[in-house]
Amino acid sequence: MTHTVARRPDVAAAASPALPTRRSGRRSRRAPGEPRRVGYLYIAPALVVYGCFVLFPLVHAAWISLFNWDGLGPSSWAGISNYTALVTDSSLRGPFVHSLVLLIFYAVLPVAIAFLLAAVLSRHQLRGMTFFRTVLFLPQVIAMVVVAVAWRSIYSPDGLLNGVLHRIGLGSLTRAWLGDFNLALPAVGLIGTWVEVGLCLVLFLAGAQRIPRELYEAARMDGAGAIREFLVVTLPGLRGEASVALTLTIVAGLRNFDLVYLTTGGGPGNATSVPSYEVYHRAFDTNEVGSAAAIGIALTALIFVVTFVVSRAVEGPRS
Q1: What are the backbone dihedrals phi and psi of residue 67, each rounded to the nearest 5 degrees, phi first?
Q2: CA-to-CA distance for 111 and 208, rounded, in angstroms?
Q3: Contact residues for 13 (Cβ-Cβ < 8 A; gap 6+)
Q4: DSSP-assigned states of every residue in 99-119
Q5: Are 181 and 269 in contact (CB under 8 A)?
């Protein structure tokens, strides 16, 4: 008579080694860096396009900047003389100074005005907020050509601005705003302020909605006024949005071309010339392609340095 001995589950498990399943076998055969390589394959098409249309032209422009070339004929080696001229030649140094002045109108004033409006609107809920945002953001969606033509008409000697000054009894202040050596650059800069305020305000209002209302209530219970509430609640809560706004407005101010080209053409004289316009002028008007490329590379480096410093200063060091 045959007796069957039943094994305990723990003894049977110890006696027979576990066989790897198909999933564990696949996982063991996968190389450690395989997921990262697969990720690179997904972004490879975008990297190829970016390299062909951004990185390669940038490197090629840097190579051209080392030559004296008119764009058609033979070239001669210039070394870094095109770059040293940016410091020694006042006609090349001036456009960079003008662009830094425009940053006050393109970045500092829009951010300050938007902060002020956001602080007021965060304390008081107004009706028609959607319409208010749309009106202020409207300059961002209007083509810069239309903006330039409209403001050139407003600034003209017989334009709207001088007409208003005449009507209110300030006719002595009228002038050709875009033809004045001292006022042409601020006049162009104020157009940039008008364009960029809406963008900054929309960013700040969106960020203010993320700030807990309890923080405002706690500040008011502690006796904080409007200014103190703005400094301890609104301003710290909008550091990320401020960094984004400053980055976008600084880039817009430094690469400004179409507005200057259509309103003043760099004039009167060189009073409103900026690096982007100087690149166009030297490449297509005076056939100094090497110098134009050097200005473009220097402008790229300036944009990178300024935006990096500002973002680090606003957001603070990251751990």
Answers
A1: -130, 155
A2: 14
A3: none
A4: HHHHHIIIIIHHHHHHHHHHH
A5: yes
Question: How far is 272 from 292, CA to CA, in rounded Å?
Answer: 17
When comparing pLDDT for 218 and 16, which is higher?
Answer: 218
Number of H-type helices and E-type strands within the chain: 18, 2
**Domain covering 88-315: architecture:** Orthogonal Bundle (1.10)
Q: HSE (CB half, 13 Å, CA atoms) of 24?
A: 4
Gap between the Cα atoms of 135 and 205, Å rounded: 14
Predicted pLDDT at 124: 66
Q: How far apart are CA 97 and CA 278, in angstroms?
A: 13
pTM over 0.85: no
pLDDT in tens, 8-59: 444 444 444 544 444 444 444 555 556 777 888 889 999 999 999 999 999 9
Q: Domain ranges in the chain?
A: 88-315
| pLDDT tens-digit series, residues 62-82 | 999 999 999 888 989 999 999
- Alpha-carbon distance of 283 to 301, in angstroms, equals 19
